[in-house]
Amino acid sequence: MARIRLTTCALLLLLSTTVFAGSTVENVRIWSENDKTRVVLDLSRSVDHSIFTLRDPSRLVIDLKDSRLGSAFAGMPKGTGLVREIRSGVRADGQLRVVLDLSTAVRSRTFTAGPNAAYGDRLVIDLQREGSLAPVKRAAEAYRPGRDIIIAIDPGHGGRDPGTSGRYVHEKEIVLALSKELARKINAEPGMRALLIRDRDVYVGHGKRVAIAHENNADLFVSVHADGFGDKRAAGASVFALNLDRANREARKAMSRLPGKEEVKLGDVVLNGKDRVLASVLFDLSQSATMSASLEVGDHVRREMSRVAKMHQNVVKEKSLAVLTSAEMPSILVEAGFLTNPSEERKLRDKKYRGRLTNAILAGIRSYFYTNPPPDTQIAMDLKRKPARQVRHVVARGDTVSEIAERYNVSSSDIRRANSLRSDKIRVGQTLSIPIFAGGY
């Protein structure tokens, strides 16, 4: 009997502990500036919550699931800004209700924030006077003076030109699938935009491909192809860069038009009216710079591709191709593999493998442009921003990069850049550096 009583007591003790195993509100902080008010609830752990507004009088109601005020809670702070008073109570269903009595109608936004060096888990409520001209924005959204970097993606061949052929598929089909996937991923990158030279099975002339990129002021030209060879053992991917010999022939054609009335441009420089020697020097300088940039971006892409694919060429080489002739923009050609090799054809027909390959190409492009961003672009502007401080976040089960970014009021690209992440893949227990910019919480 004594053993039963002891067991019963232990069970009751366990049940009583479980009742209070939810989150507790340890403190409430509030401050106001420029018609904006922020309320922060310091929590013992993250908590599910809901929020809604009431009118006449204006109130904001926050319900915290399975929560209560902490034993050391010092009391609600005095109201300030848009909040006249803060009060709380525990509802019959066990939810802690926090009510903000407001001085006027407001627009609200809430997000949860994980632990950092100074605080634990937090629930942040941002308030702004309804009808205010300036909307509540995330730090990254409030700073967009620069343009997107434009990546021209050229799926090789098409239409009447099938390219090389494997046993089951033509080159034009594989490279179009790769290019569409790459374009989708580039368009998901903040500060980048993809330009598909062709988005269906049509033939586009070589000169027209480059012209489309020029007309849209592309910063990089990426031609996507697949290899073929008589020996089925030939295998591996390759990256090639702008060939100066062919570019020189294109330059001489442009130079030959100088005496005429047709405007001849090199980038933003109009060559008409300049003597041939000066025009020749300008072409040479442009070609040298573009050649160097093409080799550099090609090497970034080659390194990343080597992580997921066997490489046929371990260096970036120049290649004399009609689509690699522009002296105005870096240009590379990616050979994704040999369709004449049965093993590589099988890989290139596999959507998951194409996904890994396009991730690698994107990582190389991103790595190059984060090192060498054109000065008028958004990426260049973002890189000039210096975080006011860094906080640390330990990844918990269920965390995603976008959710963590929302918690800390920064962008996903800020987190990826601060942690050298090539994708949004993170693991439980991983520690991330979170850059907090001026104006963040």
Any overview of this molecule?
The protein has three domains: about 20-130, Immunoglobulin-like (Sandwich); about 150-370, Aminopeptidase; about 385-435, LysM domain (Membrane-bound Lytic Murein Transglycosylase D, Chain A, Roll), CATH 3.10.350. About 30% of the residues lie in helices and about 25% in strands. It has ten helices and 19 strands. It has helices at about 1-20, 170-185, 205-215, 245-255, 275-305, 340-350, 350-370, 380-385, 400-410, 410-420, and strands spanning about 25-35, 35-45, 50-55, 60-65, 65-70, 85-90, 95-100, 105-115, 120-130, 150-155, 190-195, 220-225, 240, 265, 270, 315-320, 330-340, 390-395, 430-435. A six-stranded mixed beta sheet has the order 11-10-12-17-13-16, sandwiched between helices. A five-stranded mixed beta sheet has the order 5-1-2-9-8. Strands 3-4-7-6 form a four-stranded antiparallel beta sheet, with no helix packed on it. A hairpin with a 2-residue loop joins strand 14 and strand 15 (about 270). It starts with a helix and ends in a 5-residue tail after the last strand. The model is unreliable at about 1-20, about 135-145 and about 265-275 (pLDDT under 50).
What is the secondary structure topology, with strand pairs?
Blueprint lengths: L1 H18 L3 E11 L2 E8 L5 E6 L4 E6 L2 E3 L13 E8 L5 E7 L3 E8 L7 E9 L19 E7 L15 H17 L4 E5 L9 H10 L4 E8 L10 E4 L2 H13 L8 E2 L2 E2 L5 H30 L11 E2 L12 E8 L3 H8 L1 H21 L6 H7 L4 E6 L6 H8 L3 H7 L12 E6 L5
Parallel strand pairs: 1-5, 10-11, 10-12, 12-17, 13-16
Antiparallel strand pairs: 1-2, 2-9, 3-4, 4-7, 6-7, 8-9, 13-17, 14-15, 18-19
